[in-house]
Design goal:
Largest sheet: none
Radius of gyration: 14 Å
Strand content: under 5%
Structural class: mainly alpha
Order of helices and strands: HHHHH
Number of helices: 5
Number of domains: 1
CATH topology: Four Helix Bundle (Hemerythrin (Met), subunit A)
Shape: globular
Helix content: 40-55%
CATH class: Mainly Alpha
Length: 151
């Protein structure tokens, strides 16, 4: 299973990120390509504990949610509402200049994957995660949104 701890998987994500343009069209959802870049950056800030978020209500035990969301061999569903802290239509970081925002996302991915990795103590939906879980989550979240924009 792909994860940001694998150098080839990380390189694949960074390459695909290079295919996103300000005018890239979404296949589903509401966010723009530029908003998606800022959303992903906010996600990594949250993962590293730099952006606080309130615990979210979840429909099942967090352990089961983590197992299914991170380790079941299924693509993430479309239409899952994000938390306001990383929603660009709510409290998330607003897009400014596209190339600068992409560079910031790349910097955050590098910081997140540096050894030793920087991880928050807990995730608002999943609760406490292992380093392996965090690295899988980082890959899956970026992959989900790159697929959203055809990259």
């Amino acid at each position: 299973m792909k994860t940001l701890s694998n150098a080839a998987d990380k390189a694949e994500i960074l390459s695909r990120l290079g295919r996103i343009q300000p005018n890239s069209q979404r296949r589903w959802g509401r966010m723009s390509a530029h908003g998606m870049i800022c959303h992903l950056s906010d996600g990594f800030r949250l993962y590293m504990g730099d952006l606080p978020a309130k615990p979210a209500a979840v429909p099942m035990p967090r352990v089961l949610l983590t197992l299914v969301a991170l380790w079941a061999p299924l693509p993430w569903p479309h239409g899952f509402r994000t938390m306001p802290e990383i929603d660009q239509e709510a409290a998330g970081t607003k897009p400014t200049e596209f190339s600068a925002d992409v560079a910031e996302l790349r910097r955050l991915i590098e910081a997140f994957t540096a050894r030793p990795g920087r991880f928050s103590s807990t995730h608002p939906h999943f609760g406490p995660l292992t380093e392996k879980d965090w690295m899988r989550l980082g890959y899956l979240h970026v992959n989900h949104h790159l697929r959203q924009f055809g990259a």
